[in-house]
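Sample entry was shown:

___
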Amino acid sequence: MQTASMGIFAMCLLTGSVAWAQSSKPVLYTYVSTWTVPRAMWADYNKMESADDASLGKAVADGTLVGFGSYTVLNHTEGEPTHGNWFSAGSMANLIKGLEQLRATPGATGPVLSASKHWDYIMESHDYHATSGSFKNGYLRVGFWNYRPGASDPGGKIVKATMVPVLEKLVNDGALYSYQIDEEAIHSSDPGALNMVIIANGAEGLDKFNAAVEDMATNNALAGAGIGSLLDPHAHHDMLAHVDTMTYK
């Protein structure tokens, strides 16, 4: 999968002149909370998450937020997050309004959160697409990449050349519920980072995504050389999680 993903980015390098055929969408802000929950408290966390989902659902209904979701990590790493949630808005003001509503819920000060390690991130994206509706069979895959020193993709031209059309097609075909290519709006980690986020329609959607990536890599013999000039493969890692619930307007 890592080799195939590298192939996609290399194709972007080789076909970047096509990029501006697609214009950027309005900025989308996403607040991501990740938690390392003690295993004995997972059931308690899930109860709290259900209450949070109800609050976030109201925020989507009244237009404050455009979507939200929660997930359980499948590829566990010692000391790393086991659970997480996110919500998105079209402005920073609405994102903060959603956060304030969430922090006003009774579970915000519950014992399960006090016992859990916690990280927050505020992301922004101009390349995204989500299917309207509520779903419980999604699988979240996040690819975390760092650019090599001195390398960059100004304006996202390289990504827009080939990554965006492939992901758009997968959403339109129903293989993915959503995708988002983002970076931090408020930098709490390396500013030279790019995240590719997909939510697959069931495990079968993951296979369709992998097949699309493999197809692109196979048809570009220069993929490996291209990615080597842009992204640092040693700084790359992935997360896979089951999406317990998600809703988009």
Observations:
- The first strand starts at residue 28 and ends at 36.
- Residues 154 and 160 are 11 Å apart (CA to CA).
